[in-house]
Amino acid sequence: MKPIRDQFVLVTGSTDGIGRITALRLACMGAAVILHGRDAEKCRAVRDEMRDASGNPRVECFPTDFSSLVDVRQMGLALREQYNHLDVLINNAGVLPVDSGTGERQLSDQGYDLCLAVNYLAPFLLTHLLLPSLRMSRSARIVNVSSAAQEPIDFDDLMLSDNYSPLGAYARSKLALAMFTFELDERLREEHITVNCVHPGSLLDTKMVRRAFSNPQGSAESGADVEVYLATAPELEGVSGVYFDRKERARAHAQAYDHPAREKLWQLSLELTDLVTHLNV
Q: Is the pLDDT of residue 88 over 50?
């Protein structure tokens, strides 16, 4: 494992909440940190604040709207061109669409369920696009931020056109991310890239949780502590294909261990993200 000061780390969803704290801690440790957020002005402001707070000038930002897979593709290709290698990818960005107050299903730019698009399809696409950069690191890590809230995927209603609820959409998207983790781990088994998923804690004090539930039950700092641990802990060198409940190994929903279901989701995801299949995974 390379010293943290020699590592390049991308943290998605890092202009607020757990992702922002995670990125700042990594910057303070000396890593070169790439920030991501939806709002370009805010992303640049957070970058500048983080450089000052950490004393680390190697903090950059890539503003991208994850509800647009076109924008995600542009981000992935731009990152791959700008950085010849990437050591850690933390897929932290996520949404729980309760802002409208109506409970109606919200859609992405491509007409997909918003939760599925932002919480799952965006990291699925971005991870694939960044695999060449991750392969250039001699010991790379992918950390997918899932959740203990997981519901089985109905392949006959992948976009939740029927019986929609924001919490149900969120839980299915987080299970999809866990299924992706385990499937990608199997496909990368012979390589020097580890991929794990993690539940950073329940109802932590983030803007998303405050909007949805009003009363957080844990600190955002505790969630960041978990993400930094998954990204940097020496004892996790070579550990891959694991679902963590905070810092402990745990079991995801049973569907995550269903090989035919994972393969079906993988193929559907390739189609939905318009990914070519010659990416060697």
A: yes
Q: Is 216:210 a contact under the CB 8 Å cutoff?
A: yes
HSE-up (13 A, CA, CB side) for residue 275: 28
Q: For residue range 1-33, what is the model confidence (pLDDT) as tens digits?
A: 789 999 999 999 999 999 999 999 999 999 999
167: its two tokens: 């919490």
> Which of these is catalytic: 164, 170, 229, 257?
170
- Compute the distance between CA of residue 19 and CA of residue 92 in angstroms, rounded to an integer: 6
Instruction: Say what angle helices 69-82 and 122-135 make with each other, to 10 degrees.
Output: 10
Q: pTM above the 0.70 mark?
A: yes
Tokens at 85, concatenated: 């290698």
Residue 170 is a catalytic residue? yes
pLDDT in tens, 183-228: 999 999 999 999 999 999 655 546 664 565 557 566 778 889 999 9
Q: Which CATH number fits domain 4-272: 3.30.457.10, 3.40.50.1820, 3.40.1170.20, 3.40.50.720?
A: 3.40.50.720
Give, as one character, the DSSP assignment of residue 28.
H
